[in-house]
Amino acid sequence: MKFKNRKILYLIIGGLILLLAIWLVASQIKKQTETRSKAAGEAVTFSLTPASQDVVIGNTFQINVSLDAKTNNITGVDLTLQYNPQVSDAVSFQPAGNFNTELIKTIDPATGTVRFATVNTGTTVLSGVMPIGTLTLTGKSQGSGTLALQKAQITASGIQTEIPLDPTTAATYTVSTLPTPTSPAPPADTTKPTVTITYPADASVISRRSSLTITATATDDVGVSRVVFTAGGNSFTDTTAPYSYAWSVSGKPNATYTITATAFDQAGNSAVDTVQVKTNK
Ligand SMILES: [Ca+2]
User: Fold this and answer.
1) 45-176 and 194-279: same fold?
2) Residue pLDDT, tens place only, 56-99
3) Is the CATH number of domain 45-176 2.60.40.680?
4) Alpha carbon distance 31, 48 (integer Å)
5) Which of 11, 163, 174, 213 is such that its CA lies 20 to 30 A from the CA of 78?
6) What residues have their beta carbon closer than 5 A to ion ligand 1?
């Protein structure tokens, strides 16, 4: 009996050691799986704000990049952003500064990509929502563009994880030209021209069967468009200064004629001057 009891005791001890070993191995596997799933499984998300904006050619505008790390302790971020190089130029990427070591910061205008990689080697725990940085762009030509994540990788609890790209993680911008300033309409011209017949003088006697050059001066606040002469039933329009009309005087003796000169401006305002002349006997 004594021997048999000792054998049972050894079996029990042996069984306990085996159970302990199994538990140790199992708990180690569980711990590793938990670490992995914590890094990879939690829905870490990036966001770009503002979601949309309107900009003018030549003006700078900014898009903020932030990360919602949830409960993960983020120790590294490596992301590539894609912008539209046809309608915008990327000027700079300003890191938010919560990671202490910058690894990569490049802007490639040929492909329209911005890459930024940074790590946190300090003791500060970075989790929850955190800003990553601000991208400054300028409007280049008319059109619309999108800033989107092309690649994003985080390091959490020492494990690097590629973040699945979410097509909704994007910011759009519309670049337009400045509206053409509408020039104010010029004030309406309501001022009449002035006109004076300078030859012949009023009440003068003129030679029959002669060619008489009637002359007039005209002025206007905006501009004289024409001067219309009438004399003895004839008329003539002169559009350029000096204003004149070569009138053929009739052969009728002692005849009285009225000569008029009417000046018009471009708005249609007019003024008239009149003289009367008499042919000789
Ligand atoms: Ca006028």
Assistant:
1) yes
2) 999 999 999 999 999 888 999 999 999 999 999 999 999 998 89
3) yes
4) 34
5) 174
6) 189, 191, 220-222, 265
